[in-house]
Amino acid sequence: MLTMKKADYEKILAHAKENLPEEACGLIAGTKDGDKKIIEKVYLLENMDHTNEHFSMNPKEQLAAVKDMRANHLVPLGNWHSHPESPSRPSEEDKRLAYDPTVNYLILSLMDMDQPVLKAFDIDKEKNVTIEELVIQ
């Protein structure tokens, strides 16, 4: 189970909307206690591809985020990105680029701007996708 504060969800949503029509992206960090993962911090990064079909995170921003995680005793929990025009599910490219089976991949669909959908996924080494329970509180 993955838990997120409503304020962090709103931060991701605002960043995704600001970057339309491009995909937005970032990292998530927090704490782990067995199967329970709590997102303590959301990082908003630049999509260096500047496209609505895929994303590449800015390496300098990624490094700064990792340094911040270490300084705040947080562990990397995964990443997030938006799908401006498609459902909240990993694309074939998302699966191909999912290199770490120990983290979560969050996807925010903005297909219906009035009802955005954020889901969390696990993607294993064989590229099998399962939905991780995501609680926003």
Automatic annotation (TrEMBL):
Sample GO molecular function, one term: zinc ion binding
Gene3D superfamilies linked: Cytidine Deaminase, domain 2
GO biological process terms on file: proteolysis
The keyword Protease appears for this protein: yes
Biased composition (Basic and acidic residues): 82-96
Top-level taxon: Bacteria
Name listed for the protein in its UniProt record: Predicted metal-dependent protease of the PAD1/JAB1 superfamily
Xref: SMART domains: JAB_MPN
Region Disordered, residue ranges: 76-96
